[in-house]
Design goal:
With 107 residues, the chain is α+β, with helices and mostly antiparallel strands. It has a domain of 62 residues: Winged helix-like DNA-binding domain superfamily/Winged helix DNA-binding domain (Arc Repressor Mutant, subunit A). Helices cover 55% and strands 15% of the residues. The protein contains 5 helices and 4 strands. The longest helix is centred in the first third of the chain and has 14 residues.
């Protein structure tokens, strides 16, 4: 394992640590989308969507292509969609009293 591997997994972990970013990545598994479509489908403001897409671009997980007045976003690598699908297939039992969106309270 190299520093590049560790960095790449850390960026993915950071992306998945936010429900909106996770929703974006899962939505982009199906097809490229415009920010307004993603914001509407995820129930967030356009400003929130803009900020989260900027984060995902910075992590190298999504790319954008301008087409006229629209910008389309897609996964940077189609294998990311496959990896997310594999993660969704994992069955994990989580104690709801232990881990919450606010953080893990396990001792």
């Amino acid at each position: 394992m190299t520093l590049a591997h560790t960095s790449a997994l850390s960026r993915l972990g950071h992306a998945l640590s936010d429900a909106t970013r996770t929703g974006i990545l899962l939505a982009l598994r199906d097809a490229p989308a415009r920010p307004s479509e993603l914001a509407r489908s995820l129930g967030v403001s356009k400003q929130v969507m803009s900020n989260q897409l900027a984060c995902l671009r910075g992590c190298g997980l999504v790319t954008s292509i301008a087409e006229g007045r629209s910008t389309w976003y897609s996964l940077a690598d189609p294998r990311l969609g496959d990896a997310l699908g594999d993660l969704l297939e994992l069955v994990v039992t989580v104690d709801p009293d232990c881990c919450s969106p606010e953080g893990c309270t396990c001792a």
